[in-house]
Amino acid sequence: MTVVSMTNSGVGGAGLDATDRRILAALDEDPRMTVLALAQRTGLARGTIHARLERYRTGAALRPHSTRVTPAALGYGLAASVAVELDQHQLDQAIAGLQAIPQVIEVFAPAGQTDLLCRVVARDPEDLYRVSEEIRLCPGILRTSTSMFLRTVIPYRVAPLLAEDL
Fold this sequence. Notes:
This protein has helices at 18-29, 35-42, 46-58, 91-99, 125-136, 159-163, and strands spanning 78-86, 104-108, 116-122, 141-149. By secondary structure, it is an alpha+beta fold. A hairpin with a 7-residue loop joins strand 2 and strand 3. The longest helix has 13 residues, at 46-58. It is elongated, with a radius of gyration of 19 Å. One of its GO terms (cellular component) is cytosol. One of its GO terms (biological process) is response to amino acid. GO terms for molecular function: sequence-specific DNA binding. Residues 16-55 form the HTH asnC-type domain.
């Protein structure tokens, strides 16, 4: 099982210098930018760009390319969160069960009463019910609570974070 810490993720906030932030800000604007274009945009040598990109790939500075595909484009226009209460002795089995459900696109371990918080997608309300039931039936899961998202008010973004220290 791979767990990514939100406070220490390899090439984390403390490990990013101004050069990293310039490169990542340029990539955030245009993820398809070539090494040459990145070098020209940032005023850095291509060798520096190559080395930094390799460090980002092996660290946790860049998300997988599949996160650029919107679930709505695949027919999953409904999004929700499913709060999960589980038997703590079966955490690994519950996580394995959740990983097997394609519509579970992200899972967090929050502080508080909720043990796990799942971000899920579905085709319609009936499909959301099915996904919620599939989650509830995973080993170790005792109960769930589902909240449907009506719309995205602020989409996922990191540009303000990258600009913060520039």
